[in-house]
Write a structure and sequence with these properties.
By secondary structure, the protein is α+β, with helices and mostly antiparallel strands. It has helices at about 10-25, 90-95, 100-105, 145-160, 170-175, and strands at about 35, 45-50, 55, 75-80, 80-85, 230-235, 260-265, 280, 305-310, 310-315. It has a single domain, classed as Alpha-Beta Complex (paralog of FGE (formylglycine-generating enzyme)). Helices cover about 15% and strands about 15% of the residues.
């Protein structure tokens, strides 16, 4: 029997080797966790792979602490994605918000015209200490508005070349539950919260370094407590009643209105009920009531030291979320 031999041209061989090498290095080539480095810095953060699946969003009427906006429960489908292992830290956010100004001041000369990621609008100076004296570094970023969270994701996407965004409300709850159907990822007993969460009973009146409490079964820290986390969605109290069972990737897209948007997870300043996987929170103008500016900032809050964010990245992005960015401007109406 004769065996045919095929000879590949050197250029084709080079292409195949380059493609294989890229596949080994690219996190999109596999469903594994990976570490992202923000280009131009030594700052890194970990991304955890979350497998797709179906789950019931919301809570049953019998769940203690339940609010009416958590129902009716609906079965929805979630596509696979990566989620940041911890909440975004000040180290990460400062690279976006302040690094350019700091670098310019150190150089003592006018900075070159910005381009690419550096051309994205940065936050205006905060009215007061943006950390509220709680410290920076590996502390979770706090007091940022939905617009600021969205713009951080847009900057991070441009900087890394990978599409990062806020999680949808459904993605967030799916990841927080980590396969559970109980009030918390670890069960129904709030007495066990101390091992998994910083909240009003143990936080001593302030947020804490990220990742210092136990992770859920999917490897995510601080999904309960520490800081509440922005979701992509605008808030509607009857959102679940509008869902068709089996919906894939449900989301209520944000508009050009400042409020309300959804925050999830509860915080260092909240009681146990607010930390439940299904608990929803709507932003409001009261979160910025002490801002004396007119118009008020679209970047910072004066009265929401409990809200931050974490980022996600879809394995294959759904069409209505491709290239999504904030539509809020300084002229946007509140509601």
């Amino acid at each position: 029997m004769f065996r045919k031999t095929f000879v590949l041209a050197p250029t084709l061989i080079a292409v195949l080797y380059a493609t294989a090498a890229a596949d080994r290095q690219s996190p999109t080539a596999s469903t594994t966790n990976y570490t992202e480095t923000i280009p131009g810095t030594a700052i890194t953060f970990d991304m955890v792979f979350i497998p797709g699946g179906t789950f019931k969003i919301g809570s049953p009427p019998s769940e203690p602490g339940r609010s009416t906006d958590e129902g009716p429960q609906q079965t929805v489908q979630i596509r696979p994605f990566w989620m940041e292992r911890t909440e975004v830290t000040w180290d990460e956010f400062d690279a976006f918000a302040f690094a350019q100004a700091i670098a310019g001041a150190r150089a003592g000369a006018p900075a070159a015209p910005p381009s690419g990621a550096d051309a994205i609008t940065r936050p205006t100076p905060p009215y007061a200490d943006e950390s509220f004296g709680y410290g920076k570094g590996r502390q979770p970023v706090i007091s940022i508005q939905h617009h600021a969270a969205m713009e951080y994701c847009r900057w991070l996407s441009a900087k890394t070349g990978r599409a990062y965004r806020l999680p949808t409300e459904a993605e967030w709850e799916y990841a927080a539950r980590a396969g559970s159907t109980s009030a918390y990822a670890f069960g129904d007993n709030p007495a066990a919260l101390g091992a998994a969460a910083w909240y009003s009973a143990n936080a001593d009146g302030h947020p804490h370094l990220v990742g210092t409490k136990a992770a859920n079964r999917w490897g995510l820290h601080d999904m309960h407590g520490n800081v509440a986390e922005w979701c992509l969605d605008r808030y509607e109290p009857d959102a679940y009643s509008r869902l068709t069972p089996g919906t894939i990737g449900p989301v209520l897209l944000p508009t050009d209105r400042r409020y309300p948007h959804v925050a999830r997870g509860g915080s260092w300043d909240d009681d146990a009920a607010r930390l439940r996987s299904a608990a929803r929170r709507a932003s409001s103008p009261n979160w910025n009531r002490r801002d004396p500016q007119s118009p008020q900032s679209i970047w910072w809050f004066t009265d929401a030291t409990f809200v931050g964010l974490r980022v996600v990245r879809a394995v294959e992005e759904q069409d209505n979320l491709k290239g999504i960015q904030s539509r809020i401007t300084k002229d946007s109406q509140e509601k």
